[in-house]
Design a protein that fits this description.
The complex is a heterodimer of chains A (326) and B (285). Chain A is an alpha+beta fold and 326 residues long. Helix content of chain A is 59%, strand content 13%. Chain A is built from 14 helices and 8 strands. Chain A has a 4-stranded antiparallel β-sheet, sandwiched between helices. A 3-stranded antiparallel β-sheet of chain A has the order 1-2-3. Chain B contains 13 helices and 8 strands. The chains are: A alpha+beta (326), B alpha+beta (285).
């Protein structure tokens, strides 16, 4: 052997150098890697004081602390995927929202860092890559659509209490803006008189609002503010006046810090309210358990199997606030 | 030659290995199936691992330390039970909702999982503060003081002169102090009592009873302070000082950081490690 090595010393030298370089390369590539640990075939997450906490132990503890909401997240996703088919508009809208989110993150965190942050955020809601953002937004839209159907199917039961509590309505207004509504300037008074004269002369509320209202947010829409209820964030005087009106009624002039308003309730009719997304959002806020009830009803149709684990079922129902008899 | 080649190949393979990610057993086992879909242990674990697992690691590691160092005696249980009654009184009828929001099944569950560990921690921190009192007293400089706050330098100077002339500090405070929080009553304070930096510096350097010779000005608020240090030797009021220092979260953290190092805390999962490095680096070796 020695003689062979002596005879082919150059090849041996190259071989030794190759191995040395490879071993060093391997060491250099791996020196910063985090090493793992296993005990009795189970991966260890951390150790302290000689005690090893395995991934299984860690799973049990995480499940105690976070399991309810995590389990519901995956449960809901599985049900929605089998109970609802999104239309093209929803799919397209989800893509737009995903692209906008990526652009916002990029803008806020910078091109070099946004991806890691966005990836962490999307993983936190149960998806695995930034490409799944579309699916995330589509899922949210699907749940909203399914909840809307649930509300429509149960409107007779759910609406009365909501109407009594929240006084939902469709509202429009005309604003005459003033720096000090208690002391209008000459110009402000002139404008106010113009509005009053136009209405007195028979011009419609909508036309006057479109032509003369100083509220730039609603003027183009003939003063339409849309869905309003007792939770709407308006200045107190405006909201109070709005809520006292019946369908079709117009208020007296109402003074706020913005100026003087004329308010009209276009409708309190359920069929008009149903055209407003704000109405369903408000219903969801008033009935926070509705989405869970809806999901559970769909789950019943899909044959659920908790694999004999009553604790899992109990925790899920507890999280959803559902008692089995419902 | 062959052996050298094998070593070389193995080294290359090794270079292709990466960071460790701890996996659970039976990841593919379904927890619940709904129609043609299932939720598996693995999916649930992956989701929970992306929802702040680092704080859970720290909590679990602390509990290992606590269980080793603080036996759950009747005294510990009594302290926990006392805390429970105080919390129940504070929350009233909202108590049950409050604990359920945090995932506790019921009162007994809350006592076992939250309040007994808190009582264990309090006991351990007290032991730590007692055993390291001299060092901590130097770092946190507990002092017994009286303080007046005034809006003007003139008022502060007048207050100082009246105290020097033998005036009762609380009476002088009632006359000149601009805030009801500064009635001049005797208090035990320390570096984390929330005083302006100028007062904290004065307290740190006051090693004997003293009165500020000149008003101390807080340049951020333009308020003035008159401080009388009544006691500056913490060993003379050690029990009180210990009680005050035990309340500080910074001391509990200092203790645990030392205990983590002493316990050889080590992490074997890359996700957890990176999160700890970002938010809890003080606990890493």
């Amino acid at each position: 052997m020695l003689n062979t090595m002596k005879k082919h010393w150059f090849i041996v030298l190259v071989g030794v150098l190759f191995v040395a370089a490879t071993v060093y390369f391997a060491y250099d590539m791996t020196k910063d890697f985090l090493p793992g640990k296993s005990v009795n075939g189970k991966d260890v997450v951390f150790e302290i004081n000689g005690q090893n906490v395995t991934a299984d132990d860690f799973y049990d503890r995480l499940f105690e602390d976070l399991g309810n909401s995590a389990l519901y997240t995956l449960f809901e996703r599985a049900i929605v995927a089998q109970s609802f088919t999104a239309d093209k508009d929803m799919i397209s809208e989800a893509k737009i929202q995903a692209d906008a989110t990526i652009a916002n993150f990029k803008n806020y965190y910078g091109a070099g860092t946004y991806e890691a942050i966005l990836l962490q955020a999307i993983k936190g809601v149960g998806y695995s890559s930034i490409d799944d953002l579309d699916d995330y937004f589509l899922h949210i839209a699907s749940v909203q659509a399914m909840t809307k159907v649930y509300f429509n199917e149960n409107m007779d039961e759910l609406l009365p209490a909501f109407v009594t509590a929240k006084k939902p309505r469709i509202v429009r207004h005309i604003l005459v803006k003033m720096d000090d509504p208690a002391k209008p300037t000459q110009a402000e008074q002139t404008r106010w008189d113009e509005v009053k004269n136009a209405l007195a002369g028979g011009e419609s509320f909508e036309a006057v609002a479109k032509r003369l209202s100083d509220d730039t947010g609603s003027q183009a829409d003939s003063g339409l503010l849309g869905y309003v209820d007792s939770d709407t964030q308006f200045v107190p005087e405006f909201l109070a006046a709005t809520l006292t009106l019946n369908s079709g009624e117009t208020s007296a002039w109402v003074k706020t810090t913005y100026g003087w308003h004329l308010i009209r309730v276009d409708s309190t009719d359920i069929n008009e309210l149903k055209k407003e997304d704000g109405f369903y959002t408000a219903l969801s806020n008033y009935y926070p358990k509705a989405v869970f009830t809806m999901i559970w009803e769909h789950a019943q149709d899909l044959n659920i199997d908790f694999k004999g684990n009553d604790t899992i079922k109990e925790r899920l129902l507890s999280f959803m606030g559902i008692e089995e008899a419902e | 030659m062959k052996k050298l080649l094998i070593i070389g190949v193995l080294a290359l393979v090794l270079a292709g290995c990466g960071d460790a990610y701890a996996k659970i057993t039976n990841a593919r086992n379904a927890i619940v199936s709904i129609g043609n879909k299932s939720v598996t242990r693995g999916q649930l674990f992956d989701l929970m691992m992306n929802q702040d697992p680092a704080s859970t690691v720290i909590t679990m590691a602390k509990q290992v330390i606590l269980d080793e160092k603080v036996e759950v005696t009747d005294e510990i249980r009594a302290d926990a039970a006392k805390s429970l009654e105080e919390i129940k009184e504070s929350f009233g009828t909202q108590f049950t909702d409050y604990i359920k929001r945090f995932g506790y099944k019921d009162e007994a569950d809350y006592l076992e999982k939250a309040l007994i560990p808190f009582a264990q921690q309090d006991a351990l921190v007290k032991k730590y503060v007692t055993e390291n009192f001299e060092t901590l007293a130097t770092s946190y400089f507990p002092r017994k003081v009286r303080v007046i706050q005034t809006k003007t330098e003139e008022d502060a100077k007048a207050a100082i002169n009246e105290v020097k002339d033998g005036g009762n500090f609380e009476t002088v405070a009632a006359k000149y102090s601009s805030a009801t929080a500064y009635k001049g009553e005797l208090k035990l304070v320390h570096s984390e009592s929330g005083y302006p930096a100028v007062v904290t510096t004065f307290l740190k350097t006051a090693l004997n009873p003293t009165l500020t010779a000149e008003p101390l000005k807080d340049t951020t608020t333009n308020l003035f302070y008159v401080v009388q240090v009544v006691e500056a030797q913490p060993t003379r009021y050690q029990d009180e000082a210990i009680e005050a220092l035990v309340e500080l979260s910074s001391i509990a953290e200092k203790m645990f950081v030392e205990l983590f190092k002493e316990g050889g805390f080590k992490v074997y999962d890359k996700i957890i490690f990176d999160l700890l490095k970002s938010d809890y680096s003080q606990y890493l070796p």
